[in-house]
Amino acid sequence: MTEAPQPINITALFAEAASKSGLLWIQLPDGRAWPVWHAWANDTVYVVSGPGEQTLPWLPEVVTIILRSKDSGGRLLAVQATAEVVEPETDQWAAAVEALRLGRLNAMGDVESRWATECTVHALRPFGMPFEQPGSYDQSPRSVLVRPAQASTAGWRPWHAGGRPQRRRRAR
Known about the structure:
The chain is of the alpha+beta class. It is 19% helix and 30% strand. It is built from 3 helices and 7 strands, in the order H-E-E-E-E-E-E-H-H-E. The protein has a 7-stranded antiparallel beta sheet with strand order 2-1-5-6-7-4-3. Strand 1 and strand 2 (33-37) form a beta hairpin. It is globular. The model has no long low-confidence stretch (mean pLDDT 79).
């Protein structure tokens, strides 16, 4: 007779993964996921974006947070979260800035005033049961076709001083 697997405490697993990993993905309803660094404090994920910080589009009220395993780097949890903008001069702002400042090791200058004037700080609060968790992962392929940007050289090869090596001259 086999033993039933032990239940997983999802809240503790989320808190552990969010506090140990400095990177997570925020997936928007259109399916695109954005990697971001974050700070975990008071059961909330804080994210800052804007000039001089990471790029992040406008966030709707509900997003999906995808956390990775610190050990393997693979997907660990995917859970929904509410997203709200943290306004300066509030109690939540002070807690968010303190948590983010500790995680931003190479920050220069007065980050608090720069974040208040130029950037956006979001508070993400997870809710509900995870879409993915240990023991139940989506098996569909996650590969996405990368669209070439205007700056890509997919159609031509740049000129090389002295010519390209002989073995690659006819590689077009």
